[in-house]
Amino acid sequence: MAQARKILLYLVLVFVLYTVITSPARAADLVQIGFEGISSAAKSVGEFMTQLIS
């Protein structure tokens, strides 16, 4: 199981490097979208917690 996980990790790493090297602008867009999603989720959780306290 550990060997399969290590192989999968290497494949994902190679894919990410390939994507960044071949299309850095698209990779930057994807990272920005990901961070915007995380930011939005954190903001929503904060608003929810504020409403629970109020």
Any overview of this molecule?
- With 54 residues, the chain is mainly alpha-helical.
- Helices cover 94% and strands 0% of the residues.
- The chain is built from two helices and no strands.
- The chain has helices at residues 2-22, 24-53.
- It is flat.
- The mean pLDDT is 92.
Give the topology:
Elements lengths: L1 H21 L1 H30 L1
Helix pairs in contact: 1-2
Question: What keywords describe this structure?
Answer:
54 residues; 94% helix; 2 helices; mainly alpha
Number of helices: 2
Main beta sheet: none
Radius of gyration: 18 Å
* Intertermini distance: 48 Å
Helix content: over 70%
Q: Which geometry do the CA atoms define? A: flat
Structural class: mainly alpha
Number of strands: 0
Low-confidence stretches: none
Query: What percentage of the residues does DSSP assign to strands (E)?
Result: under 5%
Overall average residue pLDDT: 92
